[in-house]
Amino acid sequence: MLSTPFSPVGGSKATQAACELPNNSQKKKSSIELLSFLFGSMTNMEKWPEIEKAATEQRRELVLQGGGVDERISSCGGLPSSLYSLQLLNYLEVSQCPSLTEIHVEIQHLTNLQSLVLCRNKLTSVPDVIGILKSLKVLDLSVNNLKCLPHGLTQLKELNTLNVSCNCLEGLPDGLSQCTKLATINVSKNQITTFPPDLFSERLDLLSTLVASDNSIQELSGEICKLSALKVLDVSNNKLSEIPSDLSDCPKLKEINFKGNKLSDKRLEKMVNGCQTKSILEYLRGKGRGRRDEEGGDSDKKKKQQQHKKKKGKVREEQDEVEDLNKMVVRVLHVSEAPTALTVKVSAEVKDVRPYLVCCLVRGMSLKPGNALKRFLIAQTKLHDDLCGRRTIATIATHDAQLVKGPLVYDVRPPTRLKVVPLGRREMTAVELIRQLHLEADELRKQKKRQNVTGLHKYLQLLEGKSIYPCLVDADGDVISFPPITNSEKTKIKKTTTELLIEVTSSTSLQTCKDVMDALIIKMAELNKFTAEHQEEAGSDGEEDSARQPAADAETSSQLIVQQVRTVDQDGNLKVVYPSKTDLSKEISNFTVIW
């Protein structure tokens, strides 16, 4: 089009004369027009409304995620360069974009970044200039295709959290001990064979959590005892044959996981599959002293047990492992065995919003002793952040089943008609809630001490562009769940809750819902086992009991009962029942399902 000479029709002679330029002038003009056209096209390509809004409002946070963003990345060949001009940003998230395979070196200009989240993309490399981001505290590169990490990462002196799980990494860069403020490292689900020597350094005196499960690690150095702040160590499903006795010298270690390793010490292998951390560390400590010291230690321990527990001695000690192995038990109650089985009817309209749902009822979950409820809520949050992709893949909701009036309906409502009593708030419409959350998020941005949005605020973008919202409605017509944002105060769980209704919703697939539910129930079994072992005091928060009372042995059983819940369509035809025979089938050595 640009190469075709312009020929005015019906114009004046002056106009025609003006258009009859010399050849050189015409070529020059055509070149200018071509450059202008190309520049204009590039400018239009880079006009991303989210970026323009962040620049205009001088925002400190920016989240780009999902299919729409991925399409633009694909058409532009990457992220627009205008993104790297937002130098006020301290929180940047670009996630769930399979077309994103690399990050441009221009990211070095975002020197105020404190959190950089680039998870669930297809990144194959990260530029070494990332080391220039001296203010960076959180770096999340999980679920990508990274085979190595840049050495520049070791220059991040303020780095607190590093998550590079679910990649193809074969190792970690040397020099991580220079990141002296590291508190959490997650390198799970990679191909790592060994830890760098300087990882176990006295300089990392703030490192409290190290997760390296599902790798190919063959040796764990005794130097790990230098990590004086280490509280959680997970090296399950690796290729370890030995556990160093020096591990018992970690003064703050509270939780260890060595499951799935073929240890040469078979007694120790049995212990790591069933015993609590304290017992394992005591065993390792005894091995470190030598056989004679171990026998002496065992003798002293038995004497103390006889003094404090009259009828519990050697027999109980010898059977500890067997008892522990039998504690993680889930018994499934078939829907036909329940006198008043709960059903959930799914409306046809949800198929365009959030179509997938599974539910079940759980009894036997001990929430009353000590911090049991707190641990359960933390575990749910962790699943939301990891397996659920920060609620973008799936959302979990838990209810006190005694406060739920069935049958339930999974339906959709316009934002102005969806009324809910959000957790910790008054009743309001979805419109009012979203508006309130946006105002709170804006207020948090203005506060210097709060660098990014938290709580419910970080999920607001999940509803953008929706004209109807999904909701779970009880027999009274009350909304008890508004996924992926909040549950209702009406069915909130407490320490006194004895039966839970659990729902998992997703816009991805039904299998996603089942996978998340499986993971949650397995985690609940682990937590119940932990609570039963530790025999914490009940009523510690004053919610129900004015006096603190120890939980009785007979009452603290770790067995869970999971009752099936049927989900049907509007005509009553079965859509799904959970759990089915194909669910909860993951092979875990000390996890048993009884049908």
Describe the structure.
- The protein has 595 residues and is α/β, with parallel strands linked by helices.
- The protein has three domains: 56-167, Leucine-rich repeat, LRR (right-handed beta-alpha superhelix), CATH 3.80.10.10; 169-287, Leucine-rich repeat, LRR (right-handed beta-alpha superhelix); 328-532 and 557-593, Phenylalanyl-trna Synthetase, Chain B, domain 3 (Phenylalanyl-tRNA Synthetase, Chain B, domain 3).
- The protein has twelve helices and 25 strands.
- The chain has helices at residues 13-19, 23-45, 49-56, 67-76, 266-272, 277-289, 291-308, 314-318, 320-325, 372-385, 430-446, 510-534, and strands at 61-65, 91-95, 115-117, 138-140, 161-163, 184-186, 209-211, 232-234, 255-257, 329-333, 343-346, 356-363, 394-400, 408-413, 419-420, 428-429, 469-473, 479-482, 486-487, 499-506, 537-538, 549-550, 560-568, 574-578, 592-594.
- The strands form four sheets. Strands 10, 11, 12, 13, 14, 17, 18, 19, 20, 23, 24 and 25 form a twelve-stranded mixed β-sheet that branches. Strands 1-2-3-4-5-6-7-8-9 form a nine-stranded parallel β-sheet. It has a two-stranded antiparallel ribbon with strand order 15-16.
- A hairpin with a 5-residue loop joins strand 17 and strand 18 (479-482).
- Helix 6 crosses helix 7 (291-308) and helix 10 (372-385) runs antiparallel to helix 12 (510-534).
- The radius of gyration is 29 Å and the shape is globular.
- The N and C termini lie far apart (73 Å).
- The relative contact order is 0.09.
- Mean pLDDT is 81; it is low at 1-22, 25-45, 291-297, 312-326 and 540-556.
- Residues 286-320, 533-558 are annotated as: Disordered.
- Residues 353-529 form the B3/B4 tRNA-binding domain.
- This is Leucine rich repeat containing 47.
